[in-house]
Amino acid sequence: MTFEAFRKAAFEAALAAGCTTAETCFSEEESFCAQVLDQQLEKYTVSLSCALGLRVQYQGRNGYAYTEQLENPEQLVARALDNARVIENTDDHPMMGPCAYRPVALPEDPCAGLSEAEKIALAMDLEKQALAADPRVDRVETALVETGHGTLRLDNTLGLSATRQDRFSLSYVCAILKQGDQVQDGAAFRVRGEVKDTAACAAEAAAEAACRFDAQSAAPGTYPVVFRYDAAADLLAAFASVFSADAAQKGLSLLAGQEGQRIASEAVTIMDDPFHPYAPRAFDDEGVPSLTKAVVEKGVLKTLLHNLKTARKAGVSSTSNASRGSVGSPVGVAPSNFYIVPGEKTREQLLADMGDGLLITEVSGLHAGLNPVSGDFSLLARGMRVENGRCTVPVEQITVAGQFLQLLKHVRAVGSDLKFGFPGSVNIASPSLLVDDIKIAGKDLAK
Amino acid sequence: MIRPDTAERVLTAALQSGGDFAEIFLEDTEENTVHMIDDKVENATHSHSHGAGIRVLTGTNCVYVYTGDTGETALLRAAAAAAAAVKGGDILRPQPFVPRQYGRAPAVPAAGVDNPRRIALLRAGYQAARQASADISQVSANIRDEDQRILVCNSRGVFAEDRRTRALLAVSAVASGGGEVQTGQQSFGFGKGYEGFDGADLAAVGRKAADMALTMLRAPECPAGQFPVVIGPGFGGVIFHEACGHSLEATSVAKGNSEFCGKLGQKIADKRVTAVDDGTIPGAWGSLGIDDEGTPTRKNVLIEHGVLKGYMIDLLGSIRMGMPVTGSSRRESYCYAPTSRMTNTYIAAGEDDDEEMLRTLGEGLYACSMGGGSVNPLTGEFNFSVNEGYWVRDGRILCPVRGATLIGKGSQVLQRIDRVGRGQTLSPGMCGSVSGSVPVNVGQPQIRVRELTVGGKGEAL
What we know:
The structure holds 2 protein chains of 2 kinds. Chain A is of the alpha+beta class. Chain A folds into 2 domains: 208 residues, PmbA/TldD superfamily (PmbA/TldD fold, 2-Layer Sandwich), CATH 3.30.2290; 221 residues, no CATH class. Helices cover 21% and strands 37% of the residues of chain A. In chain A, the strands form 4 sheets. Chain A has a 6-stranded antiparallel sheet with strand order 3-2-1-4-5-6. A 5-stranded mixed β-barrel of chain A has the order 7-14-15-16-19. Chain A has a 5-stranded mixed sheet with strand order 10-9-8-13-18. Chain B has 2 domains: 214 residues, PmbA/TldD fold; 231 residues, no CATH class. Chain B contains 9 helices and 22 strands. In chain B, strands 1, 2, 3, 4, 5, 6 and 7 form a 7-stranded mixed sheet that branches. Chain B has a 6-stranded mixed sheet with strand order 11-10-9-14-21-20, covered by helices on one side. In chain B, a hairpin with a 2-residue loop joins strand 10 and strand 11. In chain B, helix 1 runs parallel beside helix 2 and helix 3 packs parallel to helix 4. The termini of chain B are far apart. The chains are: A alpha+beta, B alpha+beta.
């Protein structure tokens, strides 16, 4: 059955069954990925998929059902209605009516027009460049080029009909370097037009691995630390739910009721900008027009992130942060393009300001070693020892521990090197951060 | 899900420009969830996933095409797209199918369970956590059931169906007081229909989550440094999963990207350590009838008395390694090409005494309940978090400690295990890797590691 026919039948069935409103969230996606090993196409993946999420409102309650097979709209409505009937939360969750959006242009992507053969050739070249990037490169673990595009469509019985498109292209390479009996891996990625610059991507991956050899642990203690932009972004992303009004209203965020309060050092300004050119969108996952806002301005919390439901409960307007994890997920709250606004100083200047301390280039175990509710974190980390503002010895097998809000308060300076990660529906980024009072655990080799 | 004659036409189309092997993986999965928070049912969802993945192998090169449309026309189109990416060679004809059926209908399939029944179970766990103490400020709980039907057919005559049913109840509690917030979580899951909840003490699941949060609320921060660590049974097995399990998957081993490459027959762990991956345990969370390539699962001994005995190997891994498959090939859904993964992985029961290993610990950490972790198989560097820990001095528990993380290198930690207790249990979790997120059990008896790096932010106690 076509989407149009399915949607029409589903809306009719929902209204006939006594639902006040019904909404479909429909996605269609195509993807391509070429992964290369030893100059052969090791893995070639293409996909074509569509998925439909249905939300119905019945006596003020939302019910959801999802399918990948557009065959039986009545059954899907019955499932969603079954789910709506048991909901006990009676918070009003309005649906968006028809509305006009500021036009948004997809970012330029010179890779979007490449043929499959050209993309495969790029992946081959990426592997070749990685093998040549450093004499210690033993092999390439992964070299791939991936592209995709999709359409998301929101329709409801109030007359909302909104469509947005996105596309992506990226390359990723992971090189394995050997030095004596040590092995280390390092990875790098590029997006859009930069995918074509295979040499730079390969060189970054090799350099990342090369600076890990002969690493030592570090003596336990409290250190000033520079979190490199990627490690800082990983931390910010892992704690992003503290900025969610949904989490705050459920007692799961330390920032509940903190609007207008100082929650970070004056160096910290955090923006949530759905129009940011990295991944612009005209509306959020319930059709609310995008809104650019400072979430934290010079250390002061200006707003939490809201969807229509949390905004209604708090008596404010939605901040256009409605999010569905997938098209079938209940409407929740998530950032859009969410980043710490860069400062003036380069990373080298931050290291010079720090003098002695640690540069943390990677934190691991983010899904387990931190707790967004309490803000506590204790994570495996690696990086470099910094002496007199210069990186000296690589450091591994240490943990960094602290509390997220304390960390925000202890940010002494913000770097200029903001960089976004893999593009997605949520994009969280940070420049490098100089932070005081970070607890390090490791092994003191002097002992 | 499709008839053998359709499957044969699709496989023939997939092999039309060459290839050594072609496979169709079809899936039809129904999943239901109910979520409670703030003492109310907050959300309920139903999802129906349906699609197929077609794979063609030429040597160790893999072409994978997946689609949500499983009609013959769409499958033939997907097969043609796969064939277009294959670079010539002899045209193989699919062998005649030998149909096999694995996995039975559960006694109480999820489709026959209504939301009120789900909510009654959910509430039993939820209320026990909520009522544990006035300091419990929030509880959230989920119940999730899944009924996955798969069909794997390939050019070597496999035409095998499996049905995997699972359910999980998870409770998370938040304790607040004195300006502090701490959490505790506990889950209960199995690989059966709803009959798996019969006789289960779900209130105990909720109470355990609440007790953990309350204990941690009053706990000082864990000291950092090098210490001996006793790791509790059940989910404590995540240490083996991360420190060693991933590094024994063909995904890492076949390309030489594991610290355990080429070590078969060598002693890689203390003699007390025997470790197993067993996908056949009836009704277990990580069990399957067949793996996602149609190979029946089996009990694979990975380490026996400290000696490396085997790896977990999928078809591609077996080609690369020149070793047989082990029934270890898995994928989250048809959207992923399969690769070698764990099922129910555990350190087998040993002969040491739980009480003795604490009494003779000296000063260190008793990691009673573990959270998740991750590993870099190349270097073996792992990390995992401790949800509930206690500081031990002079062999006696001094106090609970919060915020501990354990880090190390897999090959070192295996050699440093110096006690393995007697009571082995399994705990459910989700494991993420290249072929997506799959349900796995981890398990072990209580064990002791002579020395680990303990990460925390506390001062000496």
